[in-house]
Design a protein that fits this description.
The chain is an alpha/beta fold and about 325 residues long. It has two domains: about 210 residues, Rossmann fold (3-Layer(aba) Sandwich); about 90 residues, Rossmann fold, CATH 3.40.50.1100. Helix content is about 45%, strand content about 15%. The chain contains 13 helices and ten strands. The strands form two sheets. The chain has a six-stranded mixed β-sheet with strand order 1-2-10-7-8-9, with helices on both faces. The chain has a four-stranded parallel β-sheet with strand order 5-4-3-6, with helices on both faces. Helix 4 links the parallel strand 3 and strand 4. Helix 1 crosses helix 7. The longest helix is centred in the middle third of the chain and has 19 residues. Belongs to the ACC deaminase/D-cysteine desulfhydrase family. It holds the Pfam family PALP. Keywords: Lyase, Pyridoxal phosphate. This is Pyridoxal-phosphate dependent enzyme.
C-alpha cells in the first residue's frame, strides 16, 4: 500500500536529483477554457519529463538495497530516459528495450545517458519478451514503467509539489493528468486523496488508445479497440495495480481526438512559449473539449513532458 508517508519519503529521496518545477498560468488559455488553469511544468524536469521522479525513486532503492548489478525496463521514450538517467546517478548499467518506432530524439537521449538500447517490435508482448531476455542474460532488475509502487510513489511527488505550492490555501476543484499505463494518474490521485480530498482527479486519454476508459468502466484491464494516435507516450494499457488505484480515486476519464490534442499542443506553444509533446497536451485538450464541466473552476494540470521530435511537428 502507498501511504502519504511513502510519497513523502520518495520526495525526500529524489529531491537532490530533480527540479522543483515551475507552475505557470496563461490569461489567454484561461479565457479560452473559462477556468483558472495552473500548469505544473514537468517538461522542465530532468530528462524533460515527470518520469525522472518515478525512475529515480525506484532505481535509488534498487541500488541502496543491492537488489541487482544492472537495471532494465521497456519504454517508448520518457521512462527509458528516466531509468537511464537514474542508473547513471548510481553507477549501474542500464539495458532499455524500446520499440523500433520510438521517436529518435528519445533514443538519442537514452544513449546519451549511457544506456544500451535493445530495439523491438512496437507491441507490448515484444517489449516484455525483450526485457525477459535481458534479465536472463544480465541479471538486471526490472523497473517497470508503471506497475511498480516505487515508480507510482515517485510520480506522485509532482502533484505533492503542485498542491504545496498552489493548492492548499485555495483548494483546486480539479487536477488533470493524462493516462497511459496509469503510473502518473495513480500517483496524482493518491497525492490528491491524501492532501486535498475534496479535489476531483480527472484523466485525459487519446481516442486512438482508449483502453483506460474501458477498463475504468468494466473494472478489468481492457485493450483499446485500436491504436492510432499522435500521443506516443499513452499507448500502453493499465495494469491491475494502476486500475485498482484509479477506480478508487479518479472521478472520470475523458477522451480526445488527435486533432484536439494537436490544437491544444499548438495553443501552449503559441501562447505559453514552451515546448510540450503531444501526450502532454491531452489534459488541456479535455478541458477545452468539455468546457461546461470545468467552467469557473480552479484547475491543476500536469504538463508531463517536452521530449518532442522537432523535425516532425504536427503543425
Amino acid at each position: 500500500m502507498i501511504s502519504f508517508d511513502t510519497i513523502r519519503e520518495a520526495h525526500d529521496r529524489i529531491r537532490p536529483y530533480i527540479h522543483r518545477t515551475a507552475v505557470l498560468t496563461n490569461h489567454t488559455i484561461n479565457d479560452r477554457a473559462g477556468a483558472e488553469l495552473f500548469f505544473k511544468c514537468e517538461n522542465f524536469q530532468k530528462i524533460g519529463a515527470f518520469k525522472a521522479r518515478g525512475g529515480l525513486n525506484a532505481v535509488l532503492q534498487v541500488a541502496e538495497n543491492k537488489e541487482g548489478a544492472a537495471i532494465t525496463t521497456h519504454s517508448s521514450g520518457n521512462h527509458a530516459q528516466a531509468v537511464a538517467f537514474a542508473a547513471r546517478q548510481v553507477g549501474l548499467p542500464a539495458y532499455i528495450v524500446m520499440p523500433r518506432t520510438a521517436p529518435q530524439v528519445k533514443k538519442e537521449a537514452v544513449r546519451g545517458y549511457g544506456a544500451e538500447i535493445i530495439e523491438c517490435e512496437p507491441t507490448l508482448d515484444a517489449r516484455e519478451a525483450g526485457v525477459r531476455e535481458v534479465m536472463e542474460r544480465t541479471g538486471a532488475v526490472l523497473v517497470h514503467p508503471f506497475d511498480d509502487d516505487r515508480v507510482i510513489a515517485g510520480q506522485a511527488t509532482a502533484t505533492k509539489e503542485l498542491l504545496e505550492d498552489f493548492g492548499l490555501e485555495k483548494t483546486f476543484d480539479t487536477i488533470l493528468a493524462p493516462v497511459g499505463g496509469g503510473g502518473l494518474l495513480s500517483g496524482t490521485s493518491l497525492a490528491t486523496h491524501f492532501m486535498s480530498p475534496t479535489t476531483r482527479v480527472i484523466a485525459g486519454e487519446p481516442e486512438g488508445a482508449a483502453d483506460a476508459v474501458l477498463s475504468f468502466q468494466s473494472g478489468r484491464v481492457e485493450k483499446a479497440p485500436y491504436i492510432n494516435t499522435i500521443a506516443d507516450g499513452l499507448m500502453t494499457t493499465l495494469s491491475e495495480r494502476t486500475l485498482e488505484i484509479i477506480r478508487d480515486h479518479v472521478t472520470k476519464i475523458l477522451t480526445v481526438s488527435d486533432a484536439e490534442i494537436i490544437a491544444a499542443m499548438r495553443l501552449v506553444w503559441e501562447r505559453m512559449k514552451i515546448v510540450i509533446e503531444p501526450s502532454c497536451a491531452v489534459p488541456l485538450a479535455a478541458v477545452l473539449k468539455h468546457k461546461d464541466q470545468f467552467a469557473g473552476q480552479k484547475i491543476g494540470i500536469i504538463l508531463t513532458g517536452g521530449n518532442v521530435d522537432l523535425g516532425k511537428l504536427p503543425f
